[in-house]
Design a protein that fits this description.
2 copies of one chain form a homodimer. The first copy, chain A, is 29% helix and 24% strand. Chain A is α+β, with helices and mostly antiparallel strands. In chain A, strand 2 and strand 3 form a beta hairpin. In chain A, helix 3 packs across helix 4. The structure holds a DNA duplex. Chains A, B: InterPro entries: FUR, Fur_C, WH-like_DNA-bd_sf, WH_DNA-bd_sf.
DNA sequence: CTTTTAGTGCAACTCGATTGCAAAGATTAT
DNA sequence: ATAATCTTTGCAATCGAGTTGCACTAAAAG
């Protein structure tokens, strides 16, 4: 597991206090986090600073964003080696009970045969239901 | 192709002026429509009336909604026989150039093997890229 | 015809996302 | 080291999609 500092260095993003704590928080969570989640966890950091940090991280392929249909964009640290390319596709699972979003890295996404002349850039595949903890 | 009146009758939704024009508009488009799209097309119909109409349609399985990551929920008429069940899954294609959303009925969605004890309820699978018209 | 229920239009409001701006901090040039 | 420049941060304000309260109208039931 890389440290925050290593990741920022590798991705050529300047290290700052806000960036370090935001990235650390994301690394410590096993679920994708919304801006609000992060804001609540980091009580003394401004929302817009976190927002801009997330944009920076996304541009530099440190994290990827997920639209899970909950109304809030969520963010998760890319797996090592992820380029956020169509090749790196994975499903997400959104639990409609606890509102958590999981990255399903183990569930393979089949090759997408798009209609003629359509060009794939990225994908956002969200499966909804109940997670193991809520399905009792 | 069924008429608006037939669809409403089959789905046991009372026919009104707003419902007829909204459904007609959706039937006439080959792309999924946002609330704003519909509002713009139907200049003299109130947004909240359209909104409530869409909710009614969705509850009664006349249309399904799509979160395509554009920030606006889009709506499309269900294919005949669609129950909006996990079984009726299909991919959506969102063109990042023209912002249109297509239903890819012909692209099969594989059986989803979720982690142990996860329960599938529905899915929202959006592929982004360039549509045939914009990929030139 | 009267009563009740459902649908509509308007305005206001919610809330996540985003931006303008000035202060603080870091970097580069002198 | 100091001044000039660029970047990051915090605060407040704004935006826009979605949603709701409420009064009015239309439709259905009695």
């Amino acid at each position: 597991m890389q440290t925050e500092e290593e990741i920022l260095k590798i991705k050529k993003v300047k290290n700052t206090a806000v960036r370090t704590v935001v990235l650390r928080h994301l690394l410590n969570q096993e679920k994708a986090q919304s801006l609000k989640d992060i804001e609540n966890a980091l009580a003394y950091t401004d929302r817009s600073s976190i927002f801009r940090t997330l944009k920076t991280f996304e541009e530099n392929k440190i994290i990827h964003s997920i639209e899970d249909g909950s109304g809030m964009t969520k963010y998760a640290v890319c797996a090592e080696g992820c380029n956020c390319d169509p090749k790196d596709l994975h499903y997400h699972f959104y639990c409609s009970n606890c509102n958590k979003t999981f990255c399903l890295f183990d569930l393979p996404v089949p090759k997408l045969e798009l209609p003629k002349n359509f060009k794939l850039q990225q994908a956002n595949m969200v499966v909804k239901g109940l997670c193991d903890n809520c399905n009792k």
